[in-house]
Amino acid sequence: MPIDINAIIAETRGKNFELYEDHVNPVFVKVLRMLGFNRTWVRGEGPYLWDDTGTRYLDFLTNWGVFNFGRRHPAIRGALQQVLDSDFPGWVGFDAPPLAAALARELVKRMTPGLDTVYFSNSGTEAIEAAIKFARAYTGRPSTAHLAKAFHGLTMGSLSLNGEASFRRGFEPMLPGSSEVKLGDLDGLEARLKLGDVAAFVFEPIQGKGVNIASAEYLLGAQELCRKYGTLMVCDEVQSGMGRTGRFLASQWIEGFRPDVICLSKALSGGYIPVGATITRRAVYDSVYDSMHRAIVHASTFGMGNMAMAAGLASLSVLDDEKLPERAIELGTRFRKGIEAMVPRFEFLKGVRQRGLMIAIEFGQPESMTLRAAWAMVNKMDENLFAQAIVLPLLDDHHILTQVAGHAMPIVKILPPLNISESDVDWFLDALEDVMIKLHKFPGPAWEVLKKLGNHALTSKRREGRVSTVT
């Protein structure tokens, strides 16, 4: 009897959190319940989600940048349906898959000159793992350098490049020779590179944790140092690529910048089928696959599947046809101007960092005595809490999904789909204004919610003897 997926969805609806708690990750379910994210989602379309009450939500979380094209984009869905309806075989093993060749060609067209060869994998962290191996093979060196606050994935090699200690705890030791340098500190980078053992300097042009934008001066200076000391530059565009910042790659905003390796994933999937890509120079690639005996020395069983390649091809087509990078610039400016206009009115609101539709809203200590006391109280309970005072009412009162930008950061990050409307931008700006008005009333309902969350966080710390899971 054929399986009925719709029947399974209907049968588990309303029970999914209990089942997930029993059989998958009970701690994460506790976090969802504490933050009010234990909604039962029943439908997704474009930039919207609907829960089981029929309420429509604006998704500005987009699974950390997967849904650049929104959900169920008809052109991407249509391409995948063509694959499903075809008898064209995939995963033959010993084969040169046509769709993979076509997607590689399309990606190379969008790269800076010299990046002409593509390795396909299944995720962003796999794309980074490939880059680490390629850099080691090409340079003959064992070490890597990465930036403080970096995030490149959670498999072992990528984790070794992670700038947040809480992710690494319990998994040490990391890959030997993994060194951290500060964003903007060229002297520190040179001191590390001049030792002569660094295969790759791995960086995000815009860091996902905090939306810290690397300056052109820093990246061009880092490029000069890497060339001087024979280190490859690995540019992680997993979140910042695919048109999000107004260019195909965020690094393409910098004239004369030529990294040796680009890593892509997330939105390349079209929001349907996981896919990762590591794009590099032919000489780097050939240092890995240097003989027929080593023709598949780095490979992935599920890489280059027909569905994933079709999703990538369709995503690139949509990006071009709908002029979404240009749209990201236009709408990003609308967000920035709207948020900046609020800054003089609200003491907690300090500013906005934005490139295209990769946006961080920054909060900080206020000036007035009463609000300063409230700020101190919340941060004493848990340094992760304050940003949730924005995230929670945006979700509960205004039906907008967002999240904090990273551990112990009073920053809310938004990653909207690139094809949202002006009215969606205004929906968010009106909601943020309302949240700010209520947050600046102390005591008030927002602070009662924070107090409750803080008590939960303190209990969790005492019970577990470690950092709170509220991030």
Polypeptide structure, described:
The protein has 471 residues and is of the alpha/beta class. The protein contains 18 helices and 17 strands. The chain has helices at residues 5-12, 16-23, 26-35, 62-65, 74-85, 98-109, 124-139, 156-159, 165-168, 186-193, 216-229, 282-288, 306-321, 324-342, 369-381, 388-396, 422-439, 445-464, and strands at 41-45, 48-51, 56-59, 117-121, 143-147, 178-181, 198-203, 206-207, 212-213, 232-236, 261-264, 276-280, 349-355, 358-363, 400-401, 403-404, 411-414. Strands 4-12-11-10-7-5-6 form a seven-stranded mixed sheet, sandwiched between helices. The chain has a four-stranded mixed sheet with strand order 1-2-3-15. The radius of gyration is 23 Å and the shape is globular. Residues 466-471 have low confidence and may be disordered.
